[in-house]
Design brief:
It contains eleven helices and nine strands. The protein is of the alpha+beta class. It folds into two domains: about 110 residues, Phosphorylase Kinase, domain 1; about 240 residues, Aminoglycoside 3'-phosphotransferase, Chain: A, domain 2. The longest helix is centred in the last third of the chain and has 27 residues. It starts with a helix and ends with a helix. The structure holds 2-acetamido-2-deoxy-1-O-phosphono-alpha-D-glucopyranose and magnesium ion (MG). The site of 2-acetamido-2-deoxy-1-O-phosphono-alpha-D-glucopyranose (GN1) has 11 residues, from loops. Magnesium ion binds next to loops.
C-alpha cells in the first residue's frame, strides 16, 4: 500500500480534521495498523486493515465490536469509572462501522486514545495487578450481554482438540520439509497432549461455563495512562463466547514471562511468580463473585493450557510455511513456539506454588 492509498482510505471515514500524516504500528501479527495524525489538537485516529484471510466474516466481527463497545460504553458512562475508556468506532462516510475498498479489503477506524502506553514485559507488581483488574472487569462488564448476540469470529479458536488435530495433520503432510528440525518440539507436544484435553472435555460436558470473553488477552492489549492506570482494553476481534480460563491463561502467558514472546535466548525465559500472583489478585478482585469452583480450580492450569495452545499454533504455522502469523525472519514462528514451551516447563516446576497463590487469593476475597 502506498502512503497515498492509506490517506485515501482514512478519508473514507467521517473525520472532521484534515489528515497530516500517519505512521505504521508494527506490533500485531494479524491486522495492519496505522496511527493517523490530523491538524489541530485532535488525538488522531487508529486505522486498521482487517485480515479477512483469518477473519472470514468481517461483517459479523464488526457487528460484535459494535455490540460490545456499546454495551461497555453504557456502563462506563453511567458509572464512576475514573478515566476508564472503551474503544470508539469512527463510522465510514456511508455510516457503516467499516469500509470495504475496491479490492474487497476491509478497513475500520477507532478514535485514538492519546497519552497511553503498553507493556510487552511486566516487571512491576502494581502494573500486573492493574492489568488483571482491567481484563477481569472486561469479562464482568460483558456478563449480562446474552452470548447469542455475538458471532464466533474464529470457530474453535481455543479448542485444544481441534488445534492438536490440525498440528498432527501438518506434521503428517510436512509441506515444507521442516519436520526434521522440530522433532524435540513434536515430542514435547506429544508428552502433554492428553492432560491438555481436560479443559475442552469439561467445556463439552458443561462443567465449565461459556461466557463472553476477550480471547486475546496479551498484556499489551491493555492501554495504561500517564499515571500508570489501566484505562482501556483493545484488540476486540476475538471477543466472543469463550471460557474465563482462556482470558486468564493467555494473560499469564505474556504477563508472567520474564522474556518477550519471541526471545531467542531461551535462558531468559522464566515464570515470574510474584507477577503471576499480582495479576491473579487483580483479575480475581473483579471476577471472583461470578467464578465457579471448577473455574477457580483450573485457573493456575489455564496458564499452561493457553501457553501450550499458542505454542502449538506457532509450531503448526512454522511447519505449514508461516501462512498465519506475520514473521520477520525465517524461523520466527519456531522461536516463538520454543519460548512458549520453555515457559510451560517453568510453569510445571511452579505448579504447586501457582495453585496455592490462587487458593490464598480466593480465601482472602471470600
Ligand atoms: C495474534 O492480534 P495479535 O497479533 O495480538 C493471535 C492471538 C495470539 C497472538 C500471539 C486472531 O494476536 O491468538 O495469541 O497473535 N490472534 C489471532 O502473539 O489469531
Ligand atoms: Mg489480535
Amino acid at each position: 500500500m502506498s502512503n497515498k492509498d492509506i490517506i485515501g482510505i482514512a478519508n473514507q471515514f467521517k473525520i472532521q480534521e484534515s489528515i497530516e500524516d500517519f505512521h505504521t504500528i508494527t506490533t500485531g501479527h494479524i491486522n495492519d495498523s496505522y496511527l493517523i495524525r490530523t491538524n489541530g489538537d485532535s488525538p488522531g485516529y487508529f486505522l486498521q486493515w482487517v485480515n479477512s484471510y483469518i477473519f472470514k466474516d468481517v461483517e459479523g466481527l464488526m457487528r460484535n465490536i459494535e455490540t460490545v463497545t456499546r454495551h461497555i460504553a453504557d456502563k462506563v458512562n453511567n458509572g464512576n469509572r475514573d478515566g476508564f475508556r472503551v474503544l470508539e468506532l469512527v463510522p465510514s462516510l456511508e455510516g457503516k462501522s467499516y469500509y470495504k475498498d475496491s479490492n474487497g479489503e476491509f478497513w475500520r477506524m477507532y478514535l485514538n486514545i492519546p497519552d497511553t502506553h503498553v507493556y510487552d514485559i511486566v516487571e512491576n507488581k502494581e502494573i500486573a495487578f492493574q492489568g488483571g483488574k482491567a481484563f477481569g472487569r472486561f469479562v464482568s462488564d460483558l456478563a449480562d450481554l446474552p452470548s447469542q448476540k455475538l458471532t464466533e469470529t474464529i470457530p474453535n479458536f481455543h479448542n485444544m482438540e481441534t488445534r492438536i488435530l490440525n498440528f498432527l495433520n501438518s506434521v503428517k503432510k510436512d509441506p515444507f520439509g521442516r519436520r526434521k528440525e522440530v522433532s524435540a518440539e513434536i515430542d514435547f507436544v506429544d508428552e502433554r497432549s492428553e492432560e491438555m484435553l481436560r479443559i475442552p472435555e469439561w467445556i463439552k460436558e458443561g462443567k465449565i461455563p461459556m461466557r463472553i470473553t476477550h480471547n486475546d488477552t496479551k498484556f499489551n492489549n491493555i492501554l495504561f495512562n500517564e499515571e500508570n492506570k489501566a484505562i482501556c482494553i483493545v484488540d476486540l476481534d476475538t471477543v466472543m463466547p469463550g471460557s474465563v480460563l482462556f482470558d486468564f491463561g493467555d494473560a499469564i502467558r505474556t504477563t508472567a514471562n520474564t522474556a518477550c514472546e519471541d526471545e531467542r535466548d531461551l535462558s531468559r525465559v522464566d515464570l515470574n511468580l510474584p507477577i503471576f500472583e499480582a495479576y491473579a489478585k487483580g483479575f480475581m478482585s473483579t471476577t471472583h463473585q461470578s467464578l465457579t469452583n471448577e473455574e477457580i480450580n483450573l485457573l493456575a492450569f489455564s496458564a499452561r493450557y493457553m501457553t501450550f495452545i499458542i505454542g502449538l499454533r506457532f509450531l503448526t504455522d512454522y511447519i505449514d510455511g508461516d501462512p498465519y502469523f506475520r514473521t520477520s525472519y525465517p524461523t520466527h514462528n519456531l522461536d516463538r513456539a520454543r519460548v512458549q514451551f520453555r515457559l510451560i516447563e517453568a510453569m510445571e516446576r511452579n505448579s504447586l506454588a501457582m495453585e496455592k497463590i490462587i487458593k490464598d487469593a480466593c480465601l482472602s476475597l471470600r
